[in-house]
Amino acid sequence: MSLQKFISEAISPWMKKDGADSDIVLSSRIRLARNLKEYKFPLLATMEESSAVVKQVKESLLTDDNQETGPLELVLMEDLKANEKRVLVEKHLISPNLAEQSKHGAVILSEDESVSIMINEEDHLRIQCLFPGFQLTKGLEAASRLDDWIEERVTYAFDEKRGYLTSCPTNVGTGLRASVMMHLPALAMTRQLNKILPAINQLGLVVRGIYGEGSEALGNLFQVSNQLTLGKSEQDIVEDLRDVVMQLIQQERAAREVLMQSSKLQLEDRVYRSYGILSYSRVIESKEATQRLSDVRLGIDVGLLENVSANILNELMILTQPGFLQQYAGEVLSPDLRDERRATLIRERLKLENDTNE
């Protein structure tokens, strides 16, 4: 498989589109938790009941075309190898939880991968819509239309007082999780994040790492999302998150200006050192690679690096993860071999970028 072909398959088509404030907000996600009325929730369901849920969802959703999402395809977890599941996690199309524990789980994907419907994760359905950049309102509108389309075909577990019923009490109500993936390197460099993040938590929001709950914030990438779903409308939840994200965008831009005005030489040195290391390293660990990629992306966004695509962070952050490295190699790799392959892949990708722009 050629590098170009691998890249085109590794990056979801929706990621290549433009979105507002994409220099800081990489993506916006709306996720709805739903359960089917006639079945036990996944945590208590038998294998037969879980299989019946998959069967009903398949028959209900895949027999009719959805004009908005386009063709939908069902992927069963039991048909995937461990590394194939890992790749889907790295692309944010399924959760680590679905990949690790659900034998009778599945996912329905749209052709451009902007829609992902997980089946038998913590809830019967986890409906996810993804958009590039800062597009929470557009994401909510798309998710609501998809939710209505699904509800015409299945019966949700719903209570007039409590709203949509879910396995976890924190999701009861709207069942909505709105989140944005943000690149905040300047706030990290100026040590402002330690003050900002606790304040965000006090507002009923939560800040997590790149793969959600329990994951590390690699490469200065942070996922900011709502924590409460009960007692607020979907619009209010999205608006509250939107207000906080707007403030974070303004603070990150202000921090970038400060760095450019007061420490431009040091910032330029850091950016070019990271670019050089990525361009010539023969071995590089995942954590260092993500940090160097963060530096390069910052250099691109503030104008220190030219003729390098801003999509480089999105692409290489995914391409250099363990699952994709092993998928590309076609075999299981030891940690040392992964570090070697990671360095090679980054070198080749940067060379391809340079050759394209010459």
What can you tell me about this protein's structure?
The chain has 358 residues and is of the alpha+beta class. 42% of the residues are buried. The protein folds into two domains: 1-18 and 27-173, Creatine Kinase, Chain A, domain 2 (2-Layer Sandwich), CATH 3.30.590; 264-357. Helix 10 runs antiparallel to helix 11 (312-319). The protein is globular, with a radius of gyration of 21 Å. A hairpin with a 3-residue loop joins strand 6 and strand 7 (163-164). The protein has helices at 3-10, 47-61, 82-90, 96-101, 136-151, 185-189, 193-202, 234-262, 264-280, 286-301, 312-319, 322-329, 335-357, and strands at residues 25-34, 72-76, 106-110, 115-119, 125-132, 158-159, 163-164, 176-183, 205-208, 221-226. The strands form two sheets. The protein has an eight-stranded antiparallel sheet, covered by helices on one side. The model is unreliable at 1-8 (pLDDT under 50). The protein is built from 13 helices and ten strands. The longest helix has 29 residues, at 234-262.
